[in-house]
Task: inverse folding
């Protein structure tokens, strides 16, 4: 399927990626409830967000809502931990209770992302943190 990476939003079968309406220059990634993400999906989401940022000639400040996710395969977690793009700057993960918090802690604590990554339980605070990174990162 041909995607228009210059569009403000891309829909996937079980996710959506869009430029934030609340925070300039932030990409937001949302998942279908109870999604069990595999490696192929992880690669597709990450490659798409990189291409969207490139199409707009912007750095990557990403807000990812994992609060309703059902799981992430070990291969997908390893991929995210190593996936790096020269435009990548910071990542805020919104977690809920239960599995999403466990997955978030696992991603940040054990897989050691290559860019500053932090867990949040509040979207507004996550976007504020990303805005701070935007101000101090060219």
Result:
């Amino acid at each position: 399927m041909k995607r228009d990476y210059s569009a403000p939003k891309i829909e996937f079968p079980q996710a959506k990626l869009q430029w934030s309406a609340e925070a300039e220059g932030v990409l937001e990634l949302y998942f279908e409830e109870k999604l069990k993400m595999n490696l192929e999906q992880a690669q597709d989401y990450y490659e798409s967000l990189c291409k969207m940022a490139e199409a707009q000639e912007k750095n990557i400040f990403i807000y990812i809502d994992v609060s309703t996710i059902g799981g992430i395969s070990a291969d997908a977690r390893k991929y995210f931990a190593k996936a790096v793009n020269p435009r990548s700057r910071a990542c805020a993960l919104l977690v809920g209770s239960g599995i999403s918090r466990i997955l978030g802690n696992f991603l940040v604590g054990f897989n050691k992302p290559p860019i500053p990554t932090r867990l949040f339980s509040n979207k507004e605070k996550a976007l504020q943190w990303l805005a701070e990174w935007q101000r101090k990162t060219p």
